[in-house]
């Protein structure tokens, strides 16, 4: 993404339950939590799924009371283009980046016209080459989720995107299950993609809690995406695996701490350590009186705190030298003494 800081996306997704006012409240929650962007999902339900398609198992698990097809479910969760224009304007008013994942060709065109700064490609579309070409043709930076994909499928998608004109691409590691089990996350795969493709990487999280996205940030994720809901008890397929506003804010704060702690990788004393060094380190100290002109031997020396004199790593340099003047027992040695 080209940012020094982790780019944090609050995935509002379809957690608005088809209600524009609820969508606005999700924007407010994302702003309050300190997210960089809030992301929705833009689609025409009939263009995405066939009438007879069943819901995914996690959708059935999260909404066992509903006996409906996938089409019926997502139709209830669809917002109109006019409503997305209102949300885009509301995000600008609130000072947060509006993003939305398209799920059909027409929605790609709409979001490009609306002015999204990035195209976020959902994991399920990674093998949908016509879809990828349409997005690449918009010449916007691309964030590609890679849930359910093999490394070869990621490579194939990248080739299609690049051949169609995409240049700025970030890969998001993802485990597409709601919720995802920590033992199935395999965060090291994010690093594998970074090494294999020499591209910025991030992580789209579907686990419960905030530990895994924080770990991803510590491993070098440049983008973190996490679902946000106003209430996990609301009806809908994604609420139960989402963070509530207070939790999301806690995650953002923790990630900001992590990114500060990563540093530049140069091993050197931190500024705060410099004041501690004299008290914690040791100096060469005379174990007995040493007369001027006397050869200093090992039996003359020990190492004690504070570290204000000759450091003990110069032990072998000092042994065998002459004392320049009388040195009293217990004295901390300095270079002008020898």
UniProtKB/TrEMBL annotation:
Q: Name one GO biological process term.
A: carbohydrate biosynthetic process
One of the Pfam families matching this protein, by short name: SAF
GO terms for molecular function, please?
A: N-acylneuraminate-9-phosphate synthase activity
InterPro entries per the record?
AFP_Neu5c_C_sf, Aldolase_TIM, NeuB/NeuA, PseI-like, PseI/NeuA/B-like_N, SAF, SAF_AFP_Neu5Ac, SAF_PseI/NeuA/NeuB
Q: What is its EC number?
A: 2.5.1.101
Q: What class of enzyme is it?
A: transferase
Q: Which residues form the AFP-like domain?
A: 283-338
**Superkingdom of the organism of origin:** Bacteria
- Keyword annotations of the record: Transferase
Q: Specify the protein name.
A: N,N'-diacetyllegionaminic acid synthase
What are the leading ranks of the lineage? Bacteria, Bacillati, Bacillota, Clostridia, Neomoorellales
